[in-house]
Amino acid sequence: MRLLLFPLLSVLSVGYAVAGTDATQLAGVWQGKLGNADIVACFNQAGADSSSGSYYYVRHKTPIQLMQKTGQSSWMESGGTGSWSLGTPENGHLDGTWRAPKGGAPLALALTSVSGGGTENACGSDAYNRALESFPALQIGKTQDFEGKKYRNLRVADVVTIELQGSGDGLVKVNQKLRAILPRKAEDLADYFATRRRYLSSMGTATEDETSAEPVFWSSRWITVNFYRWAAGYGRNGIMLDYRTWDLRTGDEIQLWDWFAPKSADGGLYRALPERLQKYLFKGVAIDKECRDGYKGEGQYRVSLTANGIEFWEEAFGTGCEQDFVIPYAKLGPFLTSQGKAALRDLGGI
User: Fold this and answer.
1) Rounded Cα distance, 348 and 180, in Å
2) How many domains does the chain divide into?
3) Closest CA to 322 of 332, 311, 333, 330
4) Span 101-131, pLDDT tens digits
5) Domain match, 202 and 128 both
6) What pTM, to 2 d.p., does this model score?
């Protein structure tokens, strides 16, 4: 489940900066032609320093940002792929010219108003976004290698998982659970579309969260996958690392903390170290004075499998005070619950 976060994003001033054309007339959603291609365009309300808009080809439905600096007449496409020169709208019609960055024959722009801007930032409106928000197709990545084992990424919108390549009933079950992470219906993508609209209305770009999924540990018995998400516009508070582990013999997902402590009532991914384990890990560790006095990490740790043992790593807050420990598998015995002892009894499985 995606965490609820409070945005740190500073919304930019957007709209159409006046440069020979009335900004209030241009703001809104338009449709028509760029050359012979059907397009839909939008321009946000006027801002003080810069102006934003967006457009997409009806055939491809991939938004392209338009930006105009105050005092300039042209609108520049993101990536420098082209520029727009626009006339003054008349009776709901807007004409202009598209030019390539390296010259060549210009293409005519002929647009008709779909909806006026009013007080709304048009690029975040239903009129502009409705056609962009159909359920996206499954994207299948190329086969990748992890220490001689093969997998590939599966993606729907900004949700990514992996598919393991191999045989065995347990692996088949794990793949079923990994695929179940993907969205299945439009309602599952409400946050995804809301993020895109927020950025379209503020900057004219369909920004998405940065996401990935990859194995970080994979043995004959266990696999751990890191699901990474950096929510757009939330800074450090938007980073989410979700390490999930499965048993490849049974297909069951494993909560590694249950190997060291009774099940947590809230099922949290981060937990405080059990007292005995904490004393063992911190024996001989020198803590800097500034970390003793001011650190706010509160000792919450994640657990993950590594080739050399179990790793305990503290939730990071960018202070440099976080602690990270690895206990070799052979030394884990005194700290394990009965569930943990049963899981690691066959060390060859690691």
Assistant:
1) 30
2) 3
3) 311
4) 888 899 999 999 998 655 468 999 999 999 9
5) no
6) 0.82
